[in-house]
TrEMBL record:
PANTHER family: TRICARBOXYLIC TRANSPORT PROTEIN
Keywords attached to this entry: Membrane, Transmembrane, Transmembrane helix
Protein name: Tripartite tricarboxylate transporter TctA
Organism: Nocardioides luteus
DUF112 domain ranges (all copies): 20-437
InterPro entries the record matches: DUF112_TM
Transmembrane segments: 20-49, 109-132, 144-162, 169-186, 206-224, 314-335, 355-378, 390-406, 412-442, 463-482
Keyword Nuclease set for record: no
Length: 507
């Protein structure tokens, strides 16, 4: 009951005309960037992060909430109309959504994605409000060994779940941890990996790293593979749903929410697995036989799972300071930019900001539905922008954002360097998220590792001095041993789903 009252207090703080304006601007900007091909919510927030630096923390995070949900909605629009997911979690939405659009039911697909996002996001945010404080209370009692083990768990599980190769995941993680070492050693004051460059002494700005890897890397990758063919966009009217569509969608929305939130709240995070499970569940429960030809359940369930997982990621981010998705990583860097350290003390030291942020998620989610459903035809027209002009604009805003961070031309050079790194990562199939997590969590892990070793007098056995730390390392070992079997089972399930889909198409 106390949490509910605090959430209502946060709503009262957020529901001012100026804050509502910031939320609306965030929704529109997030959708504008997120709807563009190949750009997900993480890149949308990274690209627009410098815009909020001049705002007060409360207003900035209200705009972030709008950017976040706007970027999520934009990704589903691209998946449905172009069959081009902005991120891996939107792949399942594209399977049935694009077929619905090709069958003339694009409006219904966009509507069930938007309403499902609203339902899942609202339920997920309310659950975050009740779970985060309880987890923070427990986390306050965690020692350095347990905290270090939790970070290792988050890195290992996120790195091995993404992509098809654990080796590539760990290579990306190693790159991120190395980048996180740049700057002064906090204990000795000695410069590390600065190569005599004074601008590197204060550590690399995560905004420059994120914008370079996401925005510039994507732009260079698209330019390297650019084909001057007009993009085929399926025309769409104003999204709407009939009575039958509502009847077929509401259960998948709830089931998708039930799949998505627990996965988002786990330190391993990610929406790929819950969206996949939601799609398979709806496919097995369907009695109409229209999966593979545009089943609305195949859009409603995965999209709800995606957004519920997105809401769930706030639990470990706020309560433990652990970002478990690329979007969470960028938002965590925004918190750090204001001198705020997420973790167990956040719920007490900055309670007003936290509850206003959670309330703003509800507001942003509602504004998303109110503003973007009528504007869907406009967002569809944006997809007709030629790629050269589109990515030229992205490069301009990326450079402007990197320069605005510190007003130092040196950051433009760093942006180009990380853009080239992002291009190479895409070329060799290295996942981006482990690198970003390594940059952010690396310094925190180093701090907790040194704290644990100081307590134990330099004995590495001190890392196992707490029962929770031992349990976590056992879980990591079991997961690593069982990963090959999990990967094979997942591959068989995906292959069987493709085979069944091909049979249905032949029939």
């Amino acid at each position: 009951m106390e949490n509910f009252e605090l959430l209502m207090g946060g709503l009262e703080s957020a529901l001012t005309p100026m804050n509502l304006l910031y939320a609306a601007i965030g929704v529109l900007l997030g959708t504008f960037v997120g709807v563009l091909p190949g750009i997900g919510p993480a890149m949308a927030i990274a690209l627009l992060l410098p815009v909020t630096y001049r705002l007060e923390p409360t207003s900035a995070f209200i705009m972030f909430a709008g950017l976040y949900y706007g970027g999520m909605y934009g990704g589903s629009t691209t998946s449905i109309l172009l069959n081009t997911p902005g991120e891996s979690a939107s792949v399942m939405t594209a399977l049935e959504g694009n077929r619905m659009a090709r069958a003339g039911r694009g409006a219904q697909a966009l509507a069930t994605a938007a309403v499902g996002s609203f339902v899942a996001g609202t339920i997920g945010t309310i659950l975050v409000a009740f779970f985060s404080p309880a987890l923070a209370d427990v986390a306050v009692d965690l020692g350095a060994p347990s905290y270090f083990a939790l970070m290792v768990l988050a890195l290992v599980m996120t790195t091995t779940v993404l992509g098809t190769s654990a080796l590539r995941g760990f290579a990306a993680l190693f790159l991120g941890l190395t980048i996180g070492l740049v700057g002064l050693d906090l204990n000795t004051g000695q410069p590390r990996l600065t190569f005599g460059v004074t601008q590197l002494v204060d550590r690399l700005d995560i905004v420059v790293v994120a914008v370079g890897i996401f925005a510039l890397g994507e732009a260079l990758w698209v330019a390297a593979h650019l084909r001057r063919k007009p993009t085929h966009v399926i025309p769409v009217g104003r999204p709407w749903m009939g009575r039958e569509d509502w009847g077929r969608s509401w259960k998948p929305w709830l089931r998708g929410t039930a799949f998505g939130f627990p996965f988002g709240a786990l330190p391993a995070g990610g929406a790929e697995i819950p969206t996949f499970l939601s799609y398979l569940t709806e496919r097995k429960l369907s009695k109409r036989g229209d999966f593979g030809r545009g089943a609305i359940e195949g859009v409603a369930g995965p999209e709800a799972a995606n957004n519920a997982s997105a809401a769930g990621m706030f639990v470990p981010m706020l309560a433990l300071g652990l970002p478990v998705t690329a979007t969470a990583s960028v938002m965590l860097s925004a918190l750090q930019g204001y001198g705020i350290t997420p973790g167990p003390q956040l719920m007490t030291d900055h309670a007003d900001l936290v509850w206003t942020l959670l309330a703003s998620l509800l507001i942003g989610n509602t504004l998303l539905l109110v503003l973007n459903l009528p504007l869907a035809p406009l967002w569809a027209r944006l997809l007709r922008i030629p790629r050269p002009q589109l990515y030229a604009g992205i490069l301009f805003f990326a450079c402007l954002g990197a320069y605005a961070t510190n007003l130092d031309p040196f950051d433009i050079g760093l942006l180009v360097a990380f853009g080239l790194l992002g291009l190479l990562m895409r070329r060799f199939g290295l996942p981006v998220l482990p690198l970003i997590l390594g940059v952010i969590l690396g310094p925190l892990m180093e701090s907790k590792l040194r704290e644990a070793l100081t307590i134990s007098g330099g004995d590495y056995g001190g890392l196992l001095s707490e029962p929770l730390a031992v349990v976590i390392y056992v879980l990591i070992a079991l997961f690593m041993l069982g990963r090959p079997f999990i990967a094979r089972a997942r591959a068989r399930a995906e292959q069987s789903a493709v085979v069944e889909e091909e049979k249905e198409l032949v029939d």
